[in-house]
Amino acid sequence: MLPFIVAGLTIGSVFALAAVGLVLTYKTSGIFNFAHGALASAAAFGFYWLRDLHGVSWPLAAALVVLVGAPLVGLLLARIADLLAGASLAMKVVAMVGVLLAVQGGLQLLFPPGESRQVASFLPSDSFELFGTPVTVAQLITFAVGVLATAGLTVFLRRSRTGLAMRAVVDDTELLDSMGVAPQRVRRTAWIIGSMMAGASGVLLAPLLPLDATSITFLVVTAFGAAAIGGFSSLPLTYAGGLAIGVGQSLLQKYFVDATGIAGGLASSLPFLVLFGLLVFAPRVRRPSAAEFLRRATRPAWTAPSSVRLAGALVLLGVLVAVPSFGADQMLAWTRFLAYVVLFLALGLLVRTSGQVSLAHVSFMAIGVAAFSHLAVDQGWSWPAALLAAAAIAAPIGALLAVPAIRFPGLYLALATLGFGIALQQMFYAQDFMFGAGAGLTVPRPELAGVSFEGDTGFYYFTLAVTAIVALLVVGITRSRLGRLLRAMSDSPTGLAASGASVNVSRVLVFCLSASIGAVAGVLDGAAQTLVGGDQYQPILSLQLFAVLMIAVGGVPWYAVMAAFGMVVAPAYISTDPSVTYAFMLLFGCSAIAFAVMPPDAGTAPMWLRPLVDRLAVRWPSRRRPPAIPTAAPAPLPAAAAAGGTGLRVEDLTVRFGGLVAVDGVTLDARPGTITGLIGPNGAGKSTVFGACSGLVNRSGGQVLLDDRLLSRFGPAVRARRGLGRTFQQMELFDSGTVRDNVALGCEAGFAGFNPLAHLIASRRQRRLVRQRTDEALAMCGLGELADRQVASLATGQRRMVELARCAAGRYEILLLDEPSSGLDKVETERFGRILTEIVEQRGVGILLVEHDMSLITSICDEVHVLDFGTKIAAGSVGEVVASAAVQAAYLGHSSDAFGPQPEGTRS
Ligand SMILES: Nc1ncnc2c1ncn2[C@@H]1O[C@H](COP(=O)(O)OP(=O)(O)OP(=O)(O)O)[C@@H](O)[C@H]1O
Known about the structure:
Blueprint: H1 2-29, H2 36-53, H3 58-83, H4 89-110, E1 127-130, E2 133-136, H5 137-159, H6 161-168, H7 173-179, H8 183-205, H9 213-220, H10 222-229, H11 235-255, H12 266-281, H13 290-293, H14 306-326, H15 331-353, H16 361-378, H17 383-407, H18 411-428, E3 441-442, E4 447-448, E5 451-452, H19 456-479, H20 481-491, H21 493-497, H22 503-529, E6 531-532, H23 539-551, H24 558-574, H25 578-597, H26 609-616, H27 639-642, E7 648-657, E8 660-670, E9 675-679, H28 686-694, E10 701-706, E11 709-710, H29 716-722, E12 724-726, H30 739-752, H31 756-760, H32 764-780, H33 796-809, E13 814-818, H34 826-843, E14 846-850, H35 854-860, E15 863-868, E16 871-876, H36 878-883, H37 885-892
Parallel strand pairs: 9-14, 9-15, 12-13, 13-14
Antiparallel strand pairs: 1-2, 3-6, 4-5, 7-8, 7-10, 10-11, 15-16
This protein binds adenosine-5'-triphosphate.
Domain ABC transporter: 648-894
GO cellular component, one term: plasma membrane
Keywords: ATP-binding, Cell membrane, Membrane, Nucleotide-binding, Transmembrane, Transmembrane helix, Transport
């Protein structure tokens, strides 16, 4: 066993070295370098080129690669990282995936795969005995390089000024500025060191395996597993993680040396299983919201008028129907193009519509085609039955990916999906139930109702029909309730949950749907080729799909058409030479980097195009009714309020954040039909009380009840459905939607709730009720004129009103409004007060109002509670509270001016 441990420690040390460099750059720049393995790969090829092809001595070659080449690459990456400052997480992922593809494509162009290349070992091969086990000097040196580099880096980070600055740079850039240390310089140093570590690991790995760009790139992805063990933060733990993975792999190889089943792939997929497992089972880390993940456009989105879109769709359909007449020699490429349109629609639903991420979508193609082939060929199932079964098999596997999505959206989800894709390939592709070890799988073409689609042209038209159906289905989904929920989830998962819909149900649904549609794409693509093997579904293809999808422009289904054209048809027409594929990979990589560093609005339709298209458009009369001014009786209230519910009761509530007691034994009531103020200086704990009431903040003690029923053990969506609505101090709007969409979701999200079917289908009655309540809420809040404006384009005051209208449209008993008038001027605030009173009168709801504007509090509140340092210091009518000495002391030190308007941040 000892020799395996020694071998494991040696290779583990190389992984650890790479992982430490990765964590360093992530910690200092907040950018996770997906291309870390590609850098190692480039270093290995650089070393090979210098030493093996040009006879440079190994120390000089290693020094040139690690001390000259790698720092230069590090500087380039630092520049890209600078340009990405302030970009969304999605763009950071796109840029780094772009770097990976560019390096990979470039390397494969320079060193075409297929030729056998081997770096001769360069470290001394003499060996000595350690505890009776032979150990080579090469192993010792490799191990020592890892230890020394990590130890040196740790000392550097702890002792040197730049090192200290490096540790602080992510947390507090301004502090660094004030220390006289430029954060940019610090980050640059980190990127240089990180790249050098990737370079060193590439050089050390080079002689250990045949030189191949993809295998080293993915071998170094092992470092991702080690980084996960170190919590993406601790360097010593990351180092230990690298060693542990190395030893674990080595031991698995020993024990499963002859294993042919799944166990045979365990060793190589261990790092990815670790990565996936940690992200699924580890305690939650801070969750970046999906909104952090997606690119946010500041300019309102523009879509061509529907007549132009319809005309465009017909022209496209016409061209596709005519393909056999002008593209007969490229029928395979055109048929695969259609399959890729389906695939991009699947991925787009997930990434572009719902703001999730998947770097494993090629896996669903593989699962789909393998399942289909076994069912149709081995089991003799009919073509449609096998297709539907393949889609159904992919769905629960998609749901599995939703688990990390629920726990860690954003970057960690991207990593988990990448790990999933690689583990699937390593462990399952060669199994008999997938592609097996033989020549591949036969994928038949259909024969339906006596009509054969075996021929290339026939199958093309068949694929065109299926693609059109899938496109209509995806367009339908995006326009349906599920589509609205997914877009809302992408903009603000918190806002959606607080409106009553289970975000997790939406997530699982979209992953299942996307996986199933991906499987259908796999079947179509496989049947186009008729024979497929596992090597066609390499995980790197998933990265390419993601990058191409992100750079494609337009809505559904245009981005899918554009992406599939770029990925399949364009390369096929240029040449069948594999180098064209590599050149396209390089091109996609560079385009992805360029796209990611562009300003957020650059991807939207060009300004000059818009008037042109608008002029071309035929204007159809709008079927949309203008918002009605409510004249009849208001819509029915939730049962509790209608039956004279007792409202919200907060009992002895305590909330702690670590050592800080933010709320300390607070008790208060808010009754339907009344407005209750909750005031207090900044940091008094008001928003925390709201968070605990709506289930977004964990309470440490006490209870929250609505109509005497305990709410405390429920999440935000259930509480909303029980009758607790809220707005947020930092508004949680669905920015990509219109005002009407936002307001409608206030009611519709509650109907969707936790029921997957209700996420998909809205009953007639519900649709009518949503329309009615939306119109009423819009009219009540004076938003009729703005109903079709995109929320992102509105001013703060208007946005606050939209959030209020969203609450007013919901079926709530109590509304928690958190500083709803902040950002409004005096006139707007007075109007706002009148609207609040009207909502209470018309809807019969109760309002608990957190406000700094005392004129608003004194003019509309029936009762006021006052917090200071987390405890309640007074309660009563406005007059009683104004007269309270404790309250005046808490505010402005005995000044009666306390109840003038309070600028934010005022605190004596
Ligand atoms: N997630 C958190 N983690 C740690 N501390 C927190 C967190 N949220 C709030 N706090 C702290 O809890 C205390 C109460 O904060 P809270 O936001 O509830 O006050 P507030 O009365 O709403 O203030 P403001 O009027 O400024 O919004 C503050 O000291 C704040 O720094």
